[in-house]
Amino acid sequence: MSFGSVGQYEKLRGSAYGEIDPTDPRNAVITDLEYAPVNALGMVEYSTDIFILKPVDLERGNRRLIFDFNNRGQMRTGLLNDALLTNDPSTAKDAGTGFVMNLGYSIASCGWDFCAREFDEMKIDVPVATDDAKTITGPAYEYIVFDNNATIESQLVYSAASLDKSRAQLTIRELLDDEPVVVPDDAWDYCSPDGSAINLLPVGTPFRQSWIYEFKYTAKNPVVAGVGLAAVRDFVSFLRNSSTENGNPLYGYVDHTFSHSISQPSRLLNDFQRLGFNGDINDKCVLDGILSVTGAGSGDQVNFRFARTDTTERNRQNHLYPEGVFPFAHQVLTDHMTGKTSGRDERNLANDTCAKRFDINTSSEYWVKACSLLHTDTLGNDLPDPDNVRFYMVSGASHRVGDVTKRYGGQQFTNAVDPVPTERALLLALDAWVSNGTMPPSSRVPRASEGAVFAVPQTGSQTGIVPQAELGWPTIPEVTYTGLITTRYLLDFGEGFEAGIVTNIPPSVIGRPTYPNFVSKVDADGNEISGIRLPEVAAPIATTTGWALRRVGFGGDDGNEAEGQHIPFKATRAERIEAGDPRLSLEERYTDHSGYVVEVTKAAKKLESEGFLLSADVQKYIERAEKSDVLLFRT
Fold first, then answer.
1. Average pLDDT, stretch 537-554?
2. Residue 269 to residues 67, 71, 349, 611, Cα–Cα distance (Å)
């Protein structure tokens, strides 16, 4: 298969073996690196899966590299090609539209996440920390929820130091704000000889569907997970700087480097920059441009003892891990509550290795990850944009692209607003900014001073509320609004936390101070007024939200994690009046099918003129509207 003027591509897959110097200050920031075994040269070794997709004739490429910061071992850049995701693209179907390849980019990836363990995932083998050959132990915590009634075992990330059940505790509750109830020792057990899994008793008893279990125990053998940061740094640096003699297949053909990441690795990139890994061991810039999607202002827990890269905070889950901790913003700021001064770009500013960066988030990250802290100080005041960063919120979009015909575990149909078309346009804008200084579209996010409503913490609860009246949310028949939103607490993880040692896990929220966070206000339809309003929001057929609630049997009115909602408008004025729906009907908005197509066309072309859509995607929106059944009965 050939890709326009670039021609054919070839794929290289294999393993890379690396080593890092634990005495180098650039590496010494890795927690427990001093406890990792070393070879005869005093170096810490690791191995990682690698992937390279490049033009066969590099002269016909664009001399740019995209590093696919894979998510839990799964590469995601294929989404820019509208392709099915695979770590082993081999067919025309795997190439999708070929968007990235038609532009001439090379693509690379490597393992960084020690929790990625399946056969086809991009894996990394990192060392286990020991204290002078003695086993290291420490407190560990598992938040366990299964949205099915068939699971009978729960795997632990770290094995228990002892199978003595009196040294562990399992609790259960139905809803997040319920009081946890201790599961008696005779009702659960370790179900593997090495203490790496637990089950309920009698054997074969399933975990209760969507109920919350929490397991506290003493774990052993922490891995030095931060080595994954060095692996990425050194692999990308090798591809852009090393010679053919050293085996570099891209030598001489990488003028600029970019990364593309979605969700988990975007949070890792926040840590990657904060810890200075965008500068290589020679203080050269690793990534020139970062396209970070849905990372909010959170980290990935990669650089703590007993690191956890497998979890992610949502409205209902994982609030008590050290994911959302200061610093949240790129700028160097002082936390008004602790007096600590830091910023995610601090180390890279010191050695001039800051990348140009686009932080693209959806509505969901503002509701479930306190994303507003990414562009405010710790008091909730707006910050000016850093010279090298732009912020974008995709209005009315959820973390996961849903299906408007399915509810899954939620109360409403799931939200299908897709941010990928905007990611394509912004990739080219980022490239132009890096390559020739063309200024990108201005940031488009809610601001404390304009279009925002602040959350209200609830004493003793892990979540807060956004008051309905202040948000502007309409009262829609058969739609529950509770205002549920994540609260960003300053949690106490123990005295060793600044050194990467978590000794108090899970911490309590009782009596803890909070950071202010906000979301975008909404219009009369319940659609957000701030951010990039894609045609689904600018010319809507439904209310779309970045938040959702679970339905009975799946956690009641608790938050529905990564899902959003698609709440359709009534077709006619008579139908909406009969239903008591305050939102205008489709016929009141558009009159007929052609009127709807006209409005979608206007919305899409406006976004193209602002730099948020490419012409090919504008045409797709128009064609999709033309083929839709919206008001066809009125034509």
1. 98
2. 12, 12, 16, 25
